[in-house]
Amino acid sequence: MATATINIRMDERTKRDMEAVCKDLGMSMTTAFTIFAKKMGRERRIPFEVSVDPFYSEENLAHLRRSVDALNAGHGAAHDLIDATYEDE
Fold first, then answer.
1. In this structure, is residue 17 part of a structural domain?
2. GO:BP terms for this protein (predicted)?
3. Number of domains in the chain
């Protein structure tokens, strides 16, 4: 079977993260992309769900901006969950 070379551009951090996962799985990035390509060709779809993370909705981001502005203006209080966890002990 003839092979083809494909060049893929991605940021360094994404590449390092993928290389680490591939290493943990005992495979190369080429093998991972080949698995993806074969599954996509067989199923005629992206082989996983692609969706928008609701955390990044405009409504939620606006709420976070208002909260940060309030804290920066001196309103509200920071919470230290670690200290609160051990206060009762």
1. yes
2. DNA-templated transcription; regulation of DNA-templated transcription
3. 1
